## 1
Amino acid sequence: MQKRCILCADPDPELRSNLGFLLAGENCVLEEAAGGATLLTQLRRSTDLVILPQQLPDMSGFDACTALRRQSAAPVLFLLEKADESARTLSFSVGGDDCLEKPVSCHELAVRVKALLRRYCVYGARPTGLERRLRCGGLEVDTAAGTVWQEGREVPLTELEYRIVLLLASYPNKIFSAENLYESIWEEPYFYSCKNTVMVHIRNIRQKVGSGAICTVWGKGYRMGPSKP
């Protein structure tokens, strides 16, 4: 079985050592990056997950994630110095998939890493009961490859963005509220503050595919496709 490659840029050597030990039995290899520029150089197609601190020696973790997203759709887990609403929102808006506040338990971090890898692999494979290709809202979702296409061009979506598009395209006539989307995609209980997280991801998707692909049904939520009269 091919080992999962995790690229970690957190500067704490104890955290990296303990995390590497915990994941060694999970068929994972932990690689270390000393800074943002180094991380972008080490980033490969085989990189399965990236762990980013809020601040790197040569740039912020948010800037590193923005640059990373031009090369890869691998899930990104942020380790934030203070996980307040603004930091969490920013981490998601630049393409992050999950975040934890430091100091963090290495056991909890390992659990989050394994959960992201599991979701990434599952959603990158062919979902049970779905056609290989879904066409909706001017987009084509290749469920076997885990990619989204528009007019013959692959759209560079993050894992969470892809999952949102996949869910909406799988049920094109269904309206999903922010609560529906959050609990389905993030698999966590919904709180009112989570609405902004959903809105940020929808906005990022629209910036990549155009505003007409996902329709806002005022007072109800979102669905795939152009607005209906």
## 2
Amino acid sequence: MKNKLSLHVQGENKSIEFDVNHVFNAGYAGSDQEKVQEHIDELVKLGVEAPTTTPILFPVSDYIVSTTSEVQVQHKETSGEIEYVLIWHDDELFVTVGSDHTDRKLETFSVPMSKQAYPNVIAGDVWKYEDVKDHWDQLELICWVTSEGEKKVYQQGTCADLLNPEQWEEHFSKLNVKDDGNMFFSATINTEENTLDFADKYEFELRDPVLNRSIKHHYYVNVLTEPIV
């Protein structure tokens, strides 16, 4: 059975409903290559092998996309990261915000496998890309984390910090990314402290300062119990 999603088109009295076809997670896709290297350095500290080329596009399974408010994980060394998300549906392109929740232990062994371990969490609202295309670089991305009751800004930037949809056209064409029901996760921006936080809660928001609106979502991280013997 396909993963079926129903997302509300913000500002309109309608939703889009579709079966997720293919999902693509970008990596190391910042517009500033110095900042990309900083992010790579963050991961290298955790034992992740540095990529030989950037950016990268990882195909992942269709079932991992979810609007859940809770992610269950096997251990504490997992983390989310804010990304813009593109969705192709009925010959239109939509945008929302999400978090590619990643197993950082598994990432030291295989980045693609780590992308499969936990959900790609997205918000339940979308915008039409055409409505934001002309001021794309002004769209703001912000993520907060809460650990042991303390909340702080974890990531903050704009879509100008990432490669925009037009800059991905060559990659999209190679993999037929723009087919109906496909989804694209943009990769992320740097953390405020250039370190990864293994938090209890992630909150993320895509703000449009021109049209004065925002898309928000959050989820909790629930570490499962030890194996029962």
